[in-house]
Design goal:
By secondary structure, the protein is α/β, with parallel strands linked by helices. It is about 45% helix and about 20% strand.
């Protein structure tokens, strides 16, 4: 094709039309050459769906590497790819930004990967991503957060609602044991994740399902958007509004729990107002040892990453996979168990 195009240029140059015509012909031929070159490169890129050494190539885009929850997940994806002999492109960090997520994931897809692993900061943007992946015949595996209703190949998540209920039952248990005699209030509050985190926001619903039937009233529910500083500000509002008439605050993730305990500590209410988290991050475990955090529901983000990578590998290889359930969008869902870390740092089933 390239030889033909160069020949065409020479032919136009050899003819003797007017100067304007000669320029028009030559320009058209050069444009044609550039288009052919671009198409050729595009075909090469799309066709190179494995590394030069024959290995499968996976792309991985993570919600936000500044959030401790995703660090073990990222490590697990890299470890499992190495164990399976899969080449993993450098981790794409969305930094919690929806535009960055779409741009970065689109760039991974354009590199001709064999499978895409993504933990989306913006689940509602997943449909645009899966449309691009489908055109390139690239399977998509979502790790945690949510799918935004998009059709994907597999979705791995923790039992969010069940984990929230587990935290609620634990709170009731410590109150029944009289471990906090200074706490007499029957009011509790919740600091929620962002509304787009479809499954994470069911954690608070699970917490309510346990405490409300036991006689507690949920007096506040505000969105801290998985942000420590926002949660700190919300917690200060709760404290100023309810003073000592608040027994506990359930935070839908540990990052927000860290902000909440900072406000509680600042107000001199540590041990008089209980804070619970969700994730099982190292910061939360340290806060439990310091008796600042009443407990947390531990997700196994490392296991989510490892399982997701293995499932993606099996999908590419055409192997059968058994899902825990199928969601309303027809996606295969794989549930990863959670556990409760109590006030003494013990892991409860």
């Amino acid at each position: 094709m390239f030889a033909f195009s160069l020949y065409t240029i020479r032919l136009f140059a050899a003819r003797k039309p007017t100067n304007a015509k000669r320029l028009q012909y030559a320009t058209a031929a050069i444009v044609a050459l550039l288009i052919i070159a671009a198409v050729g490169l595009g075909i090469h890129s799309r066709g190179a769906k494995s590394a030069d050494d024959g290995k499968l190539v996976f792309g991985w885009s993570v919600y936000d590497m500044s959030n401790p929850f995703f660090i073990p997940m990222d490590a697990a994806v890299r470890e499992q790819c190495e164990a399976l002999g899969v080449k993993l492109l450098p981790t794409h960090d969305q930094k919690g930004d929806a535009t960055e997520m779409v741009t970065g994931v689109s760039a991974l897809i354009a590199q001709g990967i064999d499978a895409l692993l993504v933990s989306p900061c913006s689940p509602e943007s997943m449909s645009a991503i899966t449309a691009k992946a489908a055109k390139a015949n690239i399977p998509v595996v979502v790790l945690d957060i949510g799918t935004g209703g998009a059709k994907i190949n597999a979705f791995l998540r923790s039992d969010m609602y069940g984990g929230g209920a587990k935290a609620g039952r634990y709170f009731l248990d410590v109150m029944k044991q009289g471990l906090y005699p200074d706490i007499t209030s029957k009011k509790v509050a919740i600091i929620k994740c962002e509304t787009s985190a479809t499954y994470a926001i069911t954690r608070g619903e699970g917490f309510k399902s346990a405490v409300v039937p036991a006689g507690y009233t949920v007096v506040e529910e505000q969105h801290g958007n998985s942000n420590k500083n926002e949660a700190y500000k919300i917690m200060r509002v709760y404290i100023n509004k309810y003073k000592n008439d608040l027994a506990a605050v359930f935070c839908e993730n540990d990052e927000m729990a860290m902000g909440a305990i900072a406000a509680v500590d600042e107000a001199g209410l540590t041990g008089k107002l209980l804070i619970y988290g969700f994730d099982g991050n190292d910061d939360a475990k340290a806060a439990i040892k310091e008796k600042k955090l009443g407990g947390t529901v531990a997700q196994d983000s490392h296991r989510i990453g490892a399982m997701g990578t293995e499932i993606a590998y099996k999908i590419v290889k055409g192997e059968k996979i058994e899902a825990s359930e199928v969601d309303k969008d027809g996606n295969n869902v794989f549930l990863v168990p959670v556990s409760m870390i109590d006030r003494d740092g013990n892991v409860l089933p």
